[in-house]
Amino acid sequence: MPAWTIDEEPVTGTGVDELMAQYFREMGLRVLGRPVTEGELRRVIDEDPHSGLGPPHGTFLVARDAGGEILGYAGVRLLPGVPATAELKRMFVRPAGRGAGLGRGLLRAVEAAARRLGASRIVCGTNTELAEARALYTAHGYRETGPYDGHGKAEHWYAKPLGEGAARG
Prior knowledge:
Blueprint lengths: L3 E5 L7 H17 L5 H10 L10 E8 L4 E9 L6 E9 L8 H15 L4 E6 L4 H9 L3 E3 L10 E6 L8
Parallel strand pairs: 4-5
Antiparallel strand pairs: 1-2, 2-3, 3-4, 5-7, 6-7
């Protein structure tokens, strides 16, 4: 039995902006090799706001421990102009949640949410430095593919069919 729960929560909820800032700060350290400035942080959020991770075309999932602390989160949204395709966005497991299978749990929850949104395919992008994410996607049936519109500065793109009979990881 996992030591967490994963539920849909409003992406506009209290503390979400700070969670996203924590995500981007870690991505800056890992991908850029340096801390991001507050100006860079604001720009990246302004260029790709997380507001699309809420209804009616998206979902924001939050994993909490038994005490209610946030261990991780992930968003999914339908891609505009791409039929039946959802995008996994900003999956992040905080240090306190790492090493216990929470990434797998979030990925499965995102896929289920994408299906509920009507998607039969899911895509995501990541960077070379995020080896854990790339290994997780590959282990769960995602295959490298070409870039898709809307992701920004990824270096690796993945896709997975979600339809009936598709490998579910």
